[in-house]
Amino acid sequence: xTRTSNPFARLLIYVALAFFTVYNVLPFCWTILNSIKLPKDxxxxxxxxxxxxxxxxxxxxxxxxxxxxxxxxxLLLVVIIFVLFVIGLSxxxxxxxxxxxxxxxxxAGVLVALWLPEVxxxxxxxxxxxxxxxxxxxxxxxxxxxxxxxxxxxxxxxHVISVYILVIxxxxxxxxxxxxxxxxxxxxxxxxxYDTHILxxxxxxxxxxxxxxxxxxxxxxxxxxxxxxxxxxDGAGRLRSFVSVIVPIMWPGIxxxxxxxxxxxYNDFLLARILTQxxxxxxxxIAQFTGGEDPGHVTLAAAASVSTTLPILVVIIFFQKYLxxxxxxxxxxx
Amino acid sequence: xxxxxxxxxVGPSVFIMLALMTLPLLASIFLGxxxxxxxxxxxxxxxGFQNYQEVLADPEFWDSLxxxxxxxxxxxxxxxxxxxxxxLLLDQITRMRGLFIAxxxxxxxxxxVVGTLIFRDMFDRGGPYWYWMQQLFDxxxxxxxxxxxxxxxxxxxxxxxxxxxxxxxxxxxxxxxxSLEAARVDGASWFRQLWHVAIPxxxxxxxxxxxxSIMDSYRVFDSVFVLTQQNPIFDSETIMYYNFQVALSxxxxxxxxxxxxxxxxxxxxxxxxxxxxxxREQTEES
Lengths: 334, 286
Prior knowledge:
The complex is a heterodimer of chains A (334) and B (286).
Chain A: H1 7-35, H2 39-42, H3 56-62, H4 67-89, H5 98-119, H6 124-156, H7 160-174, H8 177-191, H9 197-221, H10 226-233, H11 238-249, H12 251-267, H13 270-275, H14 282-287, H15 296-318, H16 320-331
Helix pairs in contact in A: 1-15, 3-15, 4-5, 6-9, 6-12, 7-9, 9-12, 10-11, 12-16
Chain B: H1 3-32, E1 34-35, E2 45-46, H2 50-56, H3 59-92, H4 97-109, H5 112-123, H6 128-137, H7 147-172, H8 177-185, H9 190-201, H10 203-218, H11 222-228, H12 239-249, H13 253-283
Antiparallel strand pairs in B: 1-2
Helix pairs in contact in B: 1-13, 2-13, 3-7, 3-10, 4-7, 5-11, 7-10, 7-11, 12-13
């Protein structure tokens, strides 16, 4: 739409947006401040913005050893992350396919993460992080693979059966999560898979599948069928034409759906709580800091909150362009 | 697409959904027709529709429904209108767009339990919002039956407006340029362009956001759980929260499951127009 050129109006727009930004991030910034405070500063009567910062909360949260001993490893870790980050950012300039570079970086990161507890004495919170990453990645991969196949099938097969499947999926989606608690707990006990990653992953996939197929279906509806028909005339099978023709076109849509699935899986509290006993994920691990009158809990909870939020925030901001492009390409027209 | 190919494509997804989700759905329907508590888990007593009668005659159920509806009526329009407003502002600029969007994503992606805790800390005694309200307006915020419901509504606006903003902003990028050009040539003002071109174009997005918001608002739980700190004096029980209490505090699993089934039915009633649209889309020949 027409952009205003009135400098005063433009100034007002920026002021409004700046205000909105402060309103969005202020609580998180306050938590960051709290996470580097001593309990006496965090529990003060009036909010303190000036104080002597401390890393104690983070080291208590993550380490079972003194921070001094950890320092060299920490430095090494920071360097590795920085290098991987730089490689990721400059993927376009490296003479290899972008996706290969990204996958390589992620793979290297995973290896480092698994290697770390071997050399450093990490606290339980680190195990929660690893559990969260495993569960989230597992859910994401399975959910997107079978969801993309189903979404494509539903978009192409015009029949009442497709409507039944979609409506049943919606009934599953609208079931209050409380109703899932007992049956899933029983399933876990019956199958002997209670407190394993695999059960949690499959339950999360099942719970998120309705959303995934609805969203991916509306993406696939936008693609004219002539595209894969051309490929099939050239002799490719249905599956082949799907993998090599449709999926590459659909990347923004799949990434957008993937980001929402990622959020759902990473943020899930209730299912992770009932299906695990010691293999907790981050949201469950955080809940232990929320109650109680111990004044140290405020700062520890803040450090835990920041630690939980940062990874997901980095991922989402990194993929933000795809998110907008995916949504704009008509994912949400239904 | 042939039937066999369709089955192969849809099979894995349908299998995993049916395998894991049918049991909970059937269990809800089954348990809803029985008197069952934690004491007689092994031998539920058949009571027919008595649980449903009890739910519908329960004044607390109607109170929680009333607050849930109030919550939807206040929060959903606010999210959509604020979301549209900031999407339009964002559309006006090019510099620093990424920064503003990234900032807006913060409350949206935050783990709900964490986000609510952080939000509560801001308004708690000694928190910045509490302190500034006291300093600037000489107003001391107490958690009571007026402020807690307001905080719950405000919290949901804080977390969900960015989602509406991003979806609508994405929609604004796909406006039909020819219509805009035509409107511009005719000398249409910005408001007329908005009213006659943008809003009609974004209609399906408003429906989408509205439906998602209504569904999620209907089931709001985390924020109520954290902000009320499970204290009933704040008079701000939502349906899901009451459902939770019936199940875990009163141990009435049968009644709680009857409420779950009613929730599914309630959501379906809201979604009827949307379902009809999908039915037409799926069955039309092409």
